[in-house]
Amino acid sequence: MAVKSTLTSMVVCLTATCLICSAILGGVYAVTAAPIEKVNADILKASIGQVLPEGCEISEAMELEVGGLPSEYYVATKDGETVGFAVKSTTVGFGGPLTLMVGLIPGGTVYNTSVLSHSETPGLGAKCTSDPKFTEQWKGFDVISKKLTVKKDGGDVDAITASTITSRAYALAIKNAVDALAAVPAPCSEVSAGDAAEEMIGGNDND
Amino acid sequence: MTMTKLQLITKGLIKDNPTFVLLLGMCPTLATTTSAINGLSMGLATLFVLVLSNMAISAIASLVPDKVHIPVYIVVIATFVTVLQFLMQAFTPSVYASLGLFIPLIVVNCIVLGRAEAFANKHGVIDSALDGLGVGLGFTLSLTVIGLVREILGSGSAFGFKFISGDGMLAFVMAPGAFLVLGYLMVLFNKYLAKK
User: Fold this and answer.
1) B139-161: per-residue pLDDT in tens?
2) What is the pTM assigned to this prediction?
3) Looking at beta carbons, which residues of chain A come within 8 Å of B71?
4) Residue B4 located in a structural domain
5) Which of A47, A155, B29, B44 is deepest in the core (most CB within 10 A)?
6) ipTM confidence
7) Do A123 and B72 touch (CB under 8 A)?
8) Is B170 within 8 Å of A123 when comparing Cβ atoms?
9) Can you tell me whether residue A78 is helix, strand or coil?
């Protein structure tokens, strides 16, 4: 039924298959690349909007190092004043990488956090995106006077029931974001942003 | 083979059900059925790949030398899986967020290669498409049922609608629950088949 297996026929067949398949993939990629980029940009924008006060202008992405990994942050300004920072922070959760967008306002307070991606267990660790008891505690969390570790470890973070590892990773991601922002040299053009960064450093000393 | 077109579809649903009778594709079955929606989406994703790869393979089968047929089939299947992955990323980002990790694994799902080997390379394009449709529907149905049972017991909700407050029996959302539910459903399914 099939073509005889000679060296030539096998090489020709495999080459042809690979060429055709690559062409199909290239075509589909060309069509979907733009929508995929838009979707990812929308997700990012939505998460930044969620973790910072409403009605402020968000800067372009700026590079920094969070927990030893390259990441990025965004500065939010309103009427020329810096009102907050959004820092992307990744740690390792229970099921894999846990990436958060952490919104911080000058003075060492968390405005809000949102999960960009995670692979936590559904029904357990995955509740870090939905359990109000866990997510609401970050709004206004004072990183200067409170400790960013779970209560089991002597900190001030309420862990998700039966998901201590996820909760630890979540708290660590926020702590890394705070530390990373404190280490950023103050942008010289924006005095207020510089002040804010210094205050962050001040907050870090008390940790 | 003297099966009617309808029989081609229904045998995949019941008599040759990939999950409960043939026990193929256990990895996605156990891993993605944490909720009914996840099971359904994974089933449909596999259905999509099955139908297309069955059609493509039945069309090219006579041109492929025997000794290299497995690599050729795998490349064809992998192409469709990657196409599916691009499409999901672009148009259903929320489904992709919960299943993304498992989509590339469809390539090595025994069901897909199994149907290519056992059916598609010996039958016509239309019959192969129907066979893929039947087996895919059988897989989708099984995954949805497992996901539904696990979701009801584990989270107290069905298709995302919560009707029992509180946590439910968390074990059912985790791996042990997957084995338990799969085992019991398999018993029920085969008891029903034996009676017939």
Assistant:
1) 999 999 999 999 888 878 888 77
2) 0.76
3) 14
4) no
5) B29
6) 0.75
7) no
8) yes
9) strand
